[in-house]
Write the structure tokens for this entry.
Amino acid sequence: MKAAVLREVNTPLDVEEVSIADPGPREVVVRTGASGVCHSDLHFVEGLYATRFPVILGHEAAGTIEAVGELVDYVKPGDRVICCLSVFCGHCERCTEGRTVLCSRTGLTRGPDETPRLSSDGEAVTQFANLGSFAEYMLVHENSVVKIDRDVPFEQLALIGCGATTGLGAALNTAAVRPGSAVAVIGCGGVGLNAIQGAALAGALRIIAVDAVETKLTLAREFGATDVIDASSGDVASRVRDLTGGGVDYSFEAIGKKETAEQAFDMLRAGGTATVIGMIPQGTKIELDGPSFLREKRIQGSSMGSNHFRTDMPRYVEFYLQGRLKLDELVTQRIQLDQVNKAFEDMKEGSVARSVIVF
């Protein structure tokens, strides 16, 4: 199969021929229909997070089941699925507590003595997030997919696989935004726009979008923001506090930077909660004002929107079909696999909400 392979940090991905093994007892082969190009992928290209090379990036995907292992009974060839990086085992402590997104993920990949799922000239190829969707096929554990019976294009389903679920879930699950509350979202890319949509679905009274790119602020209004703040003018936290008369109940950081995480905490009212969605680079420390904790302000992380993806994602599909969730508007451009490097350049320029590779 053809796949876009990253062999070292800060180099272009090369489209190469990669060998794919037969599925094991609880594995499935997915023929990729579409894959979003997410900022998380760029973090690994730039070396902000470590991975084992060579690696096939990509994790926001949907497709069709091509083949299944002998013990798989959840899906069959021909089923349409969304893939999710929150693969779960179903029997560890976190899974049995109902927090499958925090699964220990033991026994969900092949061991070093087994035939690798993917290889190139005899060398094992890593699947980013146990998916590796910048490829014509994915060989994954059956608990990496959710079956979708509705007739929705793959490019919209793919966005639900990461950006939509991460942003919506941060508002609906992780923070559990209350009706009538005030919300601020810092960063209006794909994830931030979905955090805005999640806050709107939860009934937030006021939703403030913060970004330095005018086109993204325009999109934010279309996705449910009631107010926008141009971050390029500075003093973001104080402007949010002035706008709301003291701060917001919930803030969401959807960029992954030290300064914006600190801003998210600083713009809270007493008793407010800041949720960091963005992938802050490894080793980065954030600094917070100590006395603020006496006012019961909180800061927390969110892992893939604290999802229960086999129940959440079908519901998001229904929201989309009812016209209550925008997905079409997130697709800025449709590209081919060999255009993935340009998609990263467009992302760094801030000119796209999402580029989607269509197979």
